[in-house]
Write a structure and sequence with these properties.
single chain, alpha+beta, 4-stranded antiparallel sheet, 4 helices
């Protein structure tokens, strides 16, 4: 019995490992460069984080409604180092339901975080000129609809013979919780610049 349990565990682990692939960038991470890029400056990036309902996972959105990030949503800012560029290219190329691309723990530390207010606004201050990448996960509740057959109409000829049936569909509405990743590359060109963006 013990051997059977071990075998089942190994099979489950194998199936999971086949279903979940993980990649990391192979470029060298220069922490001195990253530290310098997010050093103190005189520029500011501020904006609003929001998202829209998308036709994902078989869900048909009721409206293409805009949802602002709830208060306290974390917005992350990363310096665009060569390491980060490789990470982003890999994520665009490989990431899907079965594959995830991660940064190293060390690279992930070199970021700045801001929290959104009641209106989804965020602000990063004291930044140096350079390229940055901003990312957030916007959680929201939205409405969607689906149709389901609830009956049928039968048609007959003049003699009472059955001809055909026409299905009757009703539309049903429901709420669902979801989350979208929103991101953007931005560039501060001059020290003291104020950038206004929509994320």
């Amino acid at each position: 019995m013990k051997n059977v349990f071990i075998l089942m565990t190994l099979v489950s682990t194998f199936i999971f490992s086949k279903a979940q692939n993980t990649y990391y960038p192979q470029a060298f991470f220069d922490k001195k460069l990253a530290q310098n890029m997010i050093g103190f400056g005189n520029s500011t990036i501020e904006g609003v984080a929001s998202t829209k309902q998308k036709n994902n996972w078989g869900i048909k959105p009721l409206l293409g409604q805009k949802h602002y990030a709830p208060k306290g949503t974390v917005v992350m800012l990363f310096p665009v180092t060569p390491y980060f560029e490789e990470f982003h290219k890999m994520r665009k190329k490989y990431e899907n339901k079965k594959t995830t691309v991660y940064m190293s723990d060390e690279a992930f530390k070199y970021r700045i975080e801001a929290l959104t207010d009641d209106h989804g606004r965020f602000r990063f201050e004291k930044l140096k000129p350079g390229r940055y990448y901003l990312e957030t996960i916007v959680n929201f509740t939205a409405s969607a609809s689906y149709q389901q057959q609830t009956g049928q109409t039968d048609s007959y000829n003049a003699y009472g013979g059955y001809l055909y049936s026409t299905p009757i569909y009703d539309t049903f509405f429901y709420n669902y919780a979801s989350a979208n990743r929103e991101s953007k590359f931005v560039e501060i060109k001059n020290d003291g610049e104020l950038l206004e963006i929509n994320l």
